[in-house]
């Protein structure tokens, strides 16, 4: 099977601009309309929680709304001399708008953003510390620099440590005047219920497959139609995930994994160790990408065992493989394997275990159940 075409001569640039640079948003018309209705009502909630899968446009929507609100000082907050202005019908303010340019440059004094950042040694943090949240507290005590709205964007809320989450809660309990907090969450179940209760919830759904395909073709025009379709299926409605998989070689890893698993119940040892070598290579993303793709596939197998309905196949060869495996065992056994493999992967990541051995052990456990 042909490999997905990827540029390897030079480091690949980010295929998705930072959300503060992204003007257009597709697939979330209803969410935009909800925010517009809130603004046009004159009683805009002070805190919104934007939830949904990662990579579908939540942060892009947050910055889009921030630009809209900050531009209202130039629009007279929807009022006119005779009080008969037409309420705005779009969040778009145009790429050449001075507000949009300042936000794109990270130079708007009435916007504060919190996200994962490097520590003093240059290593990317795994949580947002309380010191970062104190920026919001200080920000909330100041008056607006431009006399309009002040915006806080947190991306993502579940990445805050416990102290940071408690500090955010205090801001939510005593919301500053004319300040809007836009809280982004990929995993809302991990967030304190007290934070949930003080937010207006705006769930965003995954993009449909056709939308992901269109976006992929625009971003990576050299991809074949087959690669685009398979990446879209693997992405589960997330253009961010689709592009990450392309950049990390995830599609090729998935194809190789299915080729390997198709040798069950007696795994081809040459293919197994070749696959394990690739996942334990110097590429820091290979292990993460390969193991997460395996767990995703195993979760789909488990769901199929429970429902008896084959999933939408990424690769045609999967049908024979999945059908054969669910004939051998039922839901309980496959769910047990998925739980065990998930825990082992999490432990391997935390403890920095030998990656090659983790891959071999994980797949031989599947072989044992399939035999």
Automatic annotation (TrEMBL):
**What single Pfam family name could you report for this chain, choosing any that match?**
DNA_pol3_delta2
GO biological-process terms attached to the record: DNA-templated DNA replication
This protein is called AAA+ ATPase domain-containing protein
Query: What Gene Ontology cellular-component terms does the record carry?
Result: DNA polymerase III complex
Per the record, the coiled-coil ranges are none
Check the record and name the PANTHER family matching this protein: DNA POLYMERASE III SUBUNIT DELTA, REPLICATION FACTOR C / DNA POLYMERASE III GAMMA-TAU SUBUNIT
């Amino acid at each position: 099977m042909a490999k997905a075409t990827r540029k390897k001569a030079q480091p690949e640039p980010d295929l998705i601009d930072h959300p503060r640079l992204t003007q257009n948003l597709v697939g979330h018309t209803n969410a935009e309309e909800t925010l517009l209705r809130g603004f046009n009502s004159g009683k805009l909630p002070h805190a919104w929680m934007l939830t949904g899968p990662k990579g579908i446009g939540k942060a892009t929507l947050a910055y889009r709304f921030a630009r809209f609100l900050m531009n209202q000082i130039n629009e007279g907050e929807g009022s006119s001399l005779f009080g008969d202005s037409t309420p705005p019908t779009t969040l778009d303010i145009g790429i050449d708008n001075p507000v949009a340019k300042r936000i794109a440059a990270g130079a708007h004094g009435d916007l504060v953003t919190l996200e994962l950042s490097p520590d003093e040694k240059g290593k990317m943090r795994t949580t947002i510390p309380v010191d970062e949240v104190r920026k919001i507290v200080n920000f909330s005590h100041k008056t607006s620099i431009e006399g309009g709205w002040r915006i806080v964007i947190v991306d993502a809320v579940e990445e805050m440590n416990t102290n940071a989450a408690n500090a955010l809660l205090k801001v939510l309990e005593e919301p500053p005047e004319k300040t809007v907090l836009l809280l982004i969450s990929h995993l809302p179940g991990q967030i304190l219920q007290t934070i949930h209760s003080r937010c207006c919830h705006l769930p965003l759904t995954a993009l449909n497959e056709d939308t992901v395909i269109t976006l992929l073709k625009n971003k990576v025009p050299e991809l074949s139609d087959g690669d685009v379709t398979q990446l879209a299926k693997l992405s589960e409605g997330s253009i961010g995930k689709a592009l990450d998989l392309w950049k990390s070689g995830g599609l090729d890893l998935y194809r190789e994994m299915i080729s390997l698993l198709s040798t069950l119940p007696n795994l081809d040892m040459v293919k197994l160790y070749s696959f394990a070598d690739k996942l334990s290579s110097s590429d820091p993303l290979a292990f993460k990408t390969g193991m997460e793709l395996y767990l995703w596939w195993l979760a789909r197998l488990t769901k199929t065992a429970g429902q008896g309905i084959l999933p939408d196949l990424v690769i045609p060869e999967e049908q024979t493989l999945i059908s054969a495996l669910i004939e051998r065992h039922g839901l309980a056994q496959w769910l047990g394997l998925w739980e065990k493999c998930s825990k082992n992967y999490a432990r391997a990541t935390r403890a920095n275990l030998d990656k090659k051995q983790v891959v071999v052990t994980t797949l031989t456990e599947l072989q044992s159940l399939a035999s």
